[in-house]
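Thread: quick sanity check before group meeting

JM: Hey all, I'm pulling together slides for Thursday and realized we never actually wrote out the predicted structure for the chain we discussed last week. Dropping the sequence here so it's in one place. If anyone has concerns about the input, flag it before I start.
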Amino acid sequence: MKKPILFKSPPTLENDVIQLVPMENEHSVSLYQINHSDHWHYMLSTIQTQQEMNTWVTNAIQLREKGLALPFTIINKKNNQIVGTTRLYEINSTQRTCELGSTWYGKDYQRTFVNSTCKLLLLTFCFETLNFIRVQFKTDERNERSQKAIERLGAIKEGVIRNERILSNGYIRNAVLYSITKEEWIDVKQGFIEREEKYRLHTL
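JM (edit): ok, ran it. Output follows.
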């Protein structure tokens, strides 16, 4: 089976402050250097060593090569430093849907402009380049901070998926499901633009 055309040449997404580049093995060391335990408390697995990070990055790249995901490394263009990672996965090019997640940032970039900027780049790509009709988000029911962050984006809460998966530590989690649809995108995008303008005014 041929890979969907979007995977033949993984895109780089960027604006004047952030660049999302296709994840490569060479990013593993920098990602490990900004890694800390808070990232993994609600994630599907945990990373405690450089080797585990190497494996995590390699697995992400393999998913891309199979046409199943688009993992990105996030770069702050002001200092050319790697500040985190995010990806699109559960991609269904026939139904024109995907999930956005597996996102984490270095401690200095949490609760900053970076998350909003990355989400705007990714959602614009999904809705305006790929012409997708739905992008969904899932987060651990215990992770209230993540839920609030997703809600600030303008995503709609659809409900709780009970016993959604077993985490690497054996915990059986419930997942909260959110989504943004094609019809909602214009209003959601305007919210991003207004937040970006406030950020730029604040940093002038």
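AS: nice. The CA atoms of residues 29 and 50 lie 7 Å apart. The radius of gyration is 16 Å.
JM: adding both to the slides.
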